[in-house]
Structure formats: structure tokens, C-alpha cells
Amino acid sequence: MLVDAGCTALALVLEGGYGRSHAAAVRAICAALEGARPTPEGGEAKTSTRLLVEEYGSGGRAVLM
């Protein structure tokens, strides 16, 4: 969603431990940047995710979390 919404370069910071899910998270990010558009298990993004994407896409500026 962020890749599609933005009109500027996208910078991502992946924080956290380097557990079993780390490699999967990096693969998912790379796949999204290459064009994959996976659907969450519920079929739609959470409201908080949609609001974040709208904020990012509205001005092409940094969104602090």
C-alpha cells in the first residue's frame, strides 16, 4: 500500500530481533517493492494501516510512528 501511495522515495526501517520471522519479513518487503500485493488474512488492511498510508500519500512526507 505504501509503495502505491507514495510519490517520493520510500525508506523503511525494520526494527526488532533477528528471530525466525526476520528473514520472512525482509522477503515480504522485497516482494512488495518488486510488485507483489499480498492480502492480509482478513482480506483488508486494518483501519490504522489505511490511515497511515493516507497520511503518507497525502503529502509525500515522513510519517512518524
Please give a structural write-up.
With 65 residues, the chain is mainly alpha-helical. It has one domain. 48% of the residues lie in helices and 0% in strands. It contains 3 helices and no strands. The longest helix is centred in the middle third of the chain and has 14 residues, at 20-33. The protein is globular and about 35 Å long. The two termini are 16 Å apart. The mean pLDDT is 77.
Summed up:
With 65 residues, the chain is an all-alpha fold. The protein has helices at 2-5, 20-33, 47-59.
Q: Note the total helix count.
A: 3
Radius of gyration: 13 Å
Biggest sheet record? none
Which percent bin holds the helix content? 40-55%
How many domains would you count in the coordinates?
A: 1
User: What's the count of strands?
Assistant: 0
β-strand percent reads under 5%
Shape: globular
| H/E element sequence | HHH
* Alpha-carbon distance between the two ends: 16 Å
| Uncertain stretches | none
Structure class:
mainly alpha
| Mean of pLDDT | 77
